[in-house]
UniProtKB/TrEMBL annotation:
GO terms for cellular component: plasma membrane. Virulence factor required for growth in low Mg(2+) medium and for intramacrophage survival. May be involved in regulating membrane potential by activating Na(+)/K(+)-ATPase. Residues 19-139 form the MgtC/SapB/SrpB/YhiD N-terminal domain. Belongs to the MgtC/SapB family. Its main location: membrane. Residues 156-232 form the MgtC-like C-terminal domain. This is Protein MgtC. It is found in: Cell inner membrane; Cell membrane. The keyword Repeat does not apply. It is a multi-pass membrane protein.
């Protein structure tokens, strides 16, 4: 039988060591994700790393270094589909990108173990843990910093309230006011806030604006008897 003829104790031991190392290193990565209650936690990261190690080892057994390279390429592309499953989009908010990237790195850890590069896999594991933990205070500090509207890439919106009957005319007023201020509009949406109030939201194309100019635009719009209030807001984009 081919299974009996293909049995090699040394190769089996090598595979076991690769899988054990991949298992242990991915456990470190997955434990951090599990502790933070991410979508892809301990078991997912371990399975990704162990599977990648097994596939790369298989490629090496079949066709040597060339086979390992081919399988590793498929692992890199294939893990993208798994990572896409943990990325969630809720309106303008996107979550799960970091978890997907961590899964990708777990696959890399497994691939390195599969070709016998255990030390390199350990270094990568430390880098992943550092990225997910040591950089967190820096990320929080940046997120808490005041937004500089003049230099930051952000989404800017102009909000104008009017009556449902005045939507058409006020919509034109908003577009004209922003055009005069040299701020092109990406889209204008209308939201019914109540039977008596409609809100017109104009999203700007520009990624950097002068807050004083937008204040002037809002003030000019409020001069119209059809406008209840006018304001603008900004939110950072990633």
């Amino acid at each position: 039988m081919s299974i009996i003829r293909g049995f090699d104790a040394d190769r089996l031991l090598d595979l076991c060591l690769s899988l054990v190392i991949a298992f242990l290193l991915a456990t470190l990565i997955g434990a951090e994700r599990q502790w933070r209650q991410r979508n892809a936690g301990l078991r997912t990261n371990v399975l990704v790393a162990v599977g990648a190690a097994a596939f790369v080892t298989l490629g090496m057994r079949i066709n040597g270094q060339s086979g390992a390279t081919q399988i590793a390429a498929y692992v890199v592309s294939g893990i993208g589909f798994l990572g896409a499953g943990v990325i969630m989009k809720d309106g303008a908010q996107i979550s799960g990108l970091n978890t997907a990237a961590t899964l990708w790195c777990s696959a890399a850890v497994g691939a390195l173990c599969g070709v016998g590069l255990a030390a390199e896999a350990g270094v990568l594991t430390l880098a992943v843990l550092a990225g997910n933990t040591a950089l967190r205070p820096l990320v929080n500090a940046i997120n808490r910093a005041p937004l500089d509207e003049l230099t930051s890439e952000a989404t800017y919106e102009v909000h104008v309230a009017t009556s449902p009957e005045g939507v058409g005319e006020v919509r034109d007023l908003v577009a004209e006011a922003l055009e005069r201020a040299s701020y092109p509009v990406r889209q204008i949406e209308v939201f019914e806030r109540s039977p008596e109030v409609s809100e017109i939201v104009a999203t700007l194309v520009s990624t950097a604006v002068d807050p004083v100019e937008l204040d002037a635009v809002a003030g000019a719009l409020e001069q119209s008897p059809l406008v209840s209030y006018a304001s603008w807001s900004s939110s950072s984009t990633e």
